[in-house]
From TrEMBL:
GO cellular component: a single term: cytosol
Native species: Saccharicrinis fermentans DSM 9555 = JCM 21142
Transmembrane segments: none
Class II aldolase/adducin N-terminal domain boundaries: 13-189, 233-406
Claim: DNA damage is one of the keywords in the record: no
The protein, known as: L-fuculose phosphate aldolase
Length: 430
């Protein structure tokens, strides 16, 4: 089921689409969590109580009518009262998502609020985080505790010793907020394993948002050749693969592929990544982009990399959680740990936050065939390749390496390959 024409999907179908994604991504358990949607009639559609989240059908979704009548084959979630309380306090919110993903629960049981100044996009999507004191699940006290936070203007709330609840103007926006908040918590936890997270100042975040291009010159007419159409499909398929592999989120991730000369195709901004379609992708030709489309905010960076590096034909910019732990802790990933990592990456430098700002040539000058990727501190990971598959493969290898390093930190000191072993690899593969 697609998120296209979301308003034409029945609320029960919208809920099934999102609960399936939450369950498949390991963000809830068979019995945990609940989702609701408030429709235009004032009726609340909500997941049922005691029904397997991994096999829910549209017919399982309950309706709590505006007059309190319950329609459906089950009981509504035992926690539907706090959903109702949120809608009462915040008429602008039309969907609520609650679950118990591991990293968010970790913050809830140590009674901490994650600092969203860790990455600009996290702060933009999640906003400030509220904190609801503990109360018995399903109780009116819990509803009061949570709705009070939403009344204060929070859209994301940590529930003490419980989990988290988020709201949005529709179920997609609520899910994006929920997924991004869990990503932030995982990144912060992993960064503390290898060091200490470093946070951005309000001035740095303002500077980032202020420099993003908003007016892209448009071409008058656009031509779609057979090879261009093929590249669109490749990008679409790879974005979905990256989402399925945990290398991209709904709200963040950019792929571009060189088409001919310095012209290229790139993913759009403000599109749900896992539902991206081929016709969403933006052609950039002669510095002009397709009319009626908004390309990625990093389009200028991709353009500069292609102009300065003729051997690079594909670029991926994204936020894998283990690599981002290194980006947030300002630590360097040691790719000498296993042969494959060094062969694929050779070196992977960190560059300071701001290196990706408009008109900064640091990254285009640093990436090359020998140095295919960089970690942009407190922002993202950029990986390149002579093909889209090579760039994706390198990204996967880098993320697997970072994951192994995070896990290995608790076991003892690393024993990387020595210079003689690196020389042997160099002679064998280069």
């Amino acid at each position: 089921m697609s998120v296209r024409n979301l308003n034409l999907l029945h609320p029960r179908d919208q809920i099934i689409m999102i609960i399936n994604r939450i369950y498949q991504k390991g963000l809830t358990t068979t019995s945990g969590g609940n989702i609701s949607i408030m429709d235009e009639s004032g009726d609340m559609w909500v997941t049922p109580s005691g029904v397997d989240k991994g096999s829910l059908k549209p017919s399982d979704i309950m309706c709590v009518k505006a007059d309190g009548t319950m329609v459906g084959p089950h009981k509504p979630s035992m926690e539907y009262p706090f959903h109702k309380a949120i809608y009462s306090e915040r008429p602008d919110i039309k969907s609520v998502v609650h679950a118990h993903p591991p990293a968010l629960v970790a913050f809830s049981i140590v009674r901490q609020i994650p600092n969203t100044n860790v990455i600009p996009q996290v702060k933009q999507v999640c906003g400030p985080i509220g904190y609801a004191k503990y109360a018995i699940p399903g109780s009116s006290d819990l509803g009061d505790s949570i709705s009070e936070q939403f009344q204060k203007g929070f859209d994301s709330v940590i529930m003490e010793n419980h989990g988290a609840v988020v709201g949005g103007k529709n179920v997609i926006k609520a899910y994006e907020r929920f997924e991004t908040l869990e990503f932030a918590c995982r990144t912060l936890i992993n960064s503390k394993i290898i060091g200490e997270p470093q946070f951005l100042t309000e001035e740095q975040i303002f500077g980032f948002n202020n420099q993003i291009p908003t007016d892209h010159p448009k071409m008058e007419t656009v031509t779609h050749t057979s090879d261009e159409k093929e590249l669109r499909q490749q990008i679409k398929d790879m974005v979905r693969r990256a989402c399925d592999q945990g290398l991209m989120m709904s709200t963040y991730g950019t792929i571009s592929v060189r088409w001919k000369g310095n012209d290229f195709l790139i993913t759009p901004t403000d599109a749900t990544r896992w539902d991206l379609q081929a016709n969403d992708i933006v052609q950039v030709k002669g510095g002009l982009c397709e009319p009626n489309k908004v390309p990625s905010r990093s389009t200028w960076l991709h353009q500069k990399i292609y102009e300065m590096n003729p051997e690079i034909n594909a670029i991926i910019l994204t936020q894998p959680e283990y690599l981002m732990a290194y980006g947030v802790a300002h630590k360097k990933v040691d790719v000498r740990t296993i042969p494959e990592s060094w062969i694929f990456l050779q070196d992977m430098e960190n560059v300071p936050f701001g290196s990706h700002f408009l008109s900064n040539d640091t990254i285009p000058q640093k990436v090359s065939a020998a140095n295919p990727g960089v970690i942009i501190e407190n922002d993202s990971v950029l990986m390149t390749g002579n093909s889209l598959l090579q760039a994706f493969d390198r990204l996967e290898v880098a993320e697997f390496s970072a994951k192994s390093l995070v896990m290995g930190t608790s076991l003892g000191a690393f024993a990387p390959m020595n210079e003689n072993e690196i020389d042997d690899l160099r002679k064998a593969f280069f």
